[in-house]
Amino acid sequence: LAVLDLPEGNAMRAPGEAPGLMALEVAMDEMAEKLDMDPVKFRIVNDTQVDPENPQRPFSQRQLVKCLEDGAKRFDWSKRKAKPASNRDGRWL
């Protein structure tokens, strides 16, 4: 067996990929809400920069935190209404 740096085990390019990833993202959002924590910050705090099998060895290329920070900045994440479902628009959203 070999330890690989791969995403969580969900079906990819097949039925189930979108629901599987959606379930994980919703769970992350719900955990962040229960902790009264920003969802982006929650994801950053829970990311790892080292190999879980060998914590002395950092990953050589790990850009998730930078991606989350850049995305939050570009989408003006800090200006959003933090409470879920507080941005209602129309009858359905």
How would you describe this protein?
It is built from three helices and two strands, in the order ααββα. By secondary structure, the protein is mainly alpha-helical. It has a domain at 19-79. It has a two-stranded antiparallel sheet with strand order 1-2. β1 (50-51) and β2 (54-58) form a beta hairpin. The chain is globular and about 50 Å long. The N and C termini lie far apart (47 Å). The model has no long low-confidence stretch (mean pLDDT 83). GO terms for molecular function: oxidoreductase activity. This is Xanthine dehydrogenase family protein molybdopterin-binding subunit. It comes from Xanthomonas perforans.
Short structural description:
It contains 3 helices and 2 strands.
